[in-house]
Amino acid sequence: MTIFTQTQRAIIELALGTDDGIVPPDPATIGVSAGLFKSAINALASRALISPMKGKLGWRLSTKGRKAIAEATPSASPIDEKLVKAPSKKEQLVELLTGDTPVALSTLCQTLGWQAHSVRAAISGLRKAGYVIERELVEGHSTYRRIAQTSEAMDDVRSEPSLDGSTGDSHSVETE
User: Fold this and answer.
1) What does DSSP assign to residue 170?
2) What DSSP string describes 61-125?
């Protein structure tokens, strides 16, 4: 049975997902460095699991590669979970604020691992990005919930760098 590294497995499984078995040319498609990607490609080529495409730059999965991955893969997981990008803190905050139930500031702090001023600053940033976020005082404690969003705001969450308290304007404090 053939043993694959996580990077090799990801390369082969992405190639299996294409109609003609073409290996992805960019290491960013599997989230690894160029050096690690090149090393994995060289290892796969040396075992004849991938072969150069005729008349083109790039690699294609060989018949031997298809058989090897079929033998080595149990019928479950296509790509290793470590290669899947985790949601950013900003995406987590938007998710926490979604729904009809208000979320306490203390709960947001605990879930995100942020201090209160960082959570308030992130909420302020979401408001500036087009989210409508309602703040209520419940038994003397701040609670927040998202009541609306613009389509531009959703695009911003996916394209902006994450707010993790260590970058950006984490010292801003929203007054209550």
Assistant:
1) T
2) E-HHHHHHHHHH--SS-SS-GGGSPPPPHHHHHHHHH-SSS-EEHHHHHHHHT--HHHHHHHHHH
- For the entire predicted model, the pTM comes to 0.41
SS3 153: helix
Edge to edge, the sheet with strand 141-148 lists 103-104, 141-148, 132-138
Measured between alpha carbons, how far is 12 from 164 in angstroms, rounded to an integer? 34
pLDDT digits (tens, 9 = 90+) for 30-56: 888 888 888 888 888 888 888 888 877
Domains of the chain, with CATH numbers? Answer: 6-83 (1.10.10.10), 89-159 (1.10.10.10)
Closest CA to 59 of 28, 1, 14: 14
